[in-house]
Design goal:
6 helices; alpha+beta; 6-stranded antiparallel β-sheet; Immunoglobulin-like
């Protein structure tokens, strides 16, 4: 599209963002080739933050490369065949579904918060579209079978897709309130390969991710620059997002004036496995 990136004053469309194409590729490659315990925290952070300073970037967790050309959607890679048998609240909440939903929330949240200055949903990614999309072509015998987007799924209260969709809404509303997409890039204070924990600060918020498949941590110490009393504004393990409700939503976290991981203060949190917590200063609620 000629002039797509030229400014409006020069007759262009004014699209001045880059697309972080390496991000969805990283997720799919890692899901295909590595066990959860082998995920590389440093590589994940590098991929999400590897952009030229001041050059706006749109991040996304999956794209047409994965979901439109006969591959699998992100949720399909995570839970595979159980997407057809155990996504109903009337069916067993299996370890596979638990893992898939938890990871889907973490992947989207860290991409949204750390990956750029814009965020792109793709073809039902916000609720975990169950299948790829494919248009009729010679390669599929001109089939219409996958030529549909199943946007009805999150509206069914008996399906677990609604939990993923509600979590997406929480992300969007919190970004509307705190504006991390138009704030300076994050400061990453921790990438712990053994614990599988990532901690960073952006837009005055403290972001804590525990990617470990089995280990939960009590009184986990994380650094934060700004002192004060913090409260939870996003909890991926909340029951209304399909989680286990292992963290009390009304918990107050108090900082201690002691340097930790290069930050001036620290606070301590209970951090369940495959859970992300986002904390904000109490006076910003």
């Amino acid at each position: 599209m000629p002039a797509l990136c030229l400014s409006l004053s020069l007759g262009g469309i004014g699209f001045d963002y880059r697309l972080a194409m390496a991000v969805p590729d990283w997720y799919i490659k890692t899901l295909k080739e590595k066990q959860d315990i082998d995920w590389d925290m440093g590589s994940l952070c590098f991929t999400l933050t590897n952009r030229r300073h001041g050059e706006k970037t749109i991040a996304y967790a999956e794209s047409h490369d994965q979901a439109l050309v006969g591959d699998k959607s992100l949720l399909m890679w995570l839970i595979d065949a159980q997407i057809y048998t155990n996504m109903s609240v009337l069916s067993e909440f299996t370890a596979v579904i638990d893992r898939g939903m938890s990871m889907h929330k973490l992947i989207r949240l860290i991409t949204h918060s750390l990956g750029g200055e814009g965020y792109l949903n793709f073809e039902g990614n916000e609720f975990g579209h169950p299948e790829w999309l494919d248009f009729p072509r010679e390669g599929n015998q001109n089939s219409f079978h996958y030529a549909r987007r199943q946007f009805n799924l999150p509206d069914d209260q008996l399906l677990r897709y609604r939990f993923l969709n509600d979590f997406d809404g929480k992300m969007q509303w919190m970004e509307e309130k705190y504006g991390w997409l138009h704030s300076p890039q994050a400061h990453v204070s921790l990438k712990h390969e053994g614990d599988k924990v990532i901690v960073f600060e952006r837009a005055g918020l403290l972001w804590i991710f525990n990617w470990h498949p089995s280990n939960s941590f009590t009184d986990y110490r994380v650094g934060v620059e700004q002192a004060g009393t913090y409260r939870i504004v996003i909890n991926s393990d909340a029951e209304n997002f399909g989680g286990h409700g292992r963290v009390k939503e009304d918990t107050r976290f108090f900082t201690t004036p002691f340097g930790w991981n290069g930050r001036s203060n620290f606070l301590q949190v209970y951090l369940p496995s495959r859970t992300a917590l986002v904390l904000a200063l109490e006076n910003t609620l």
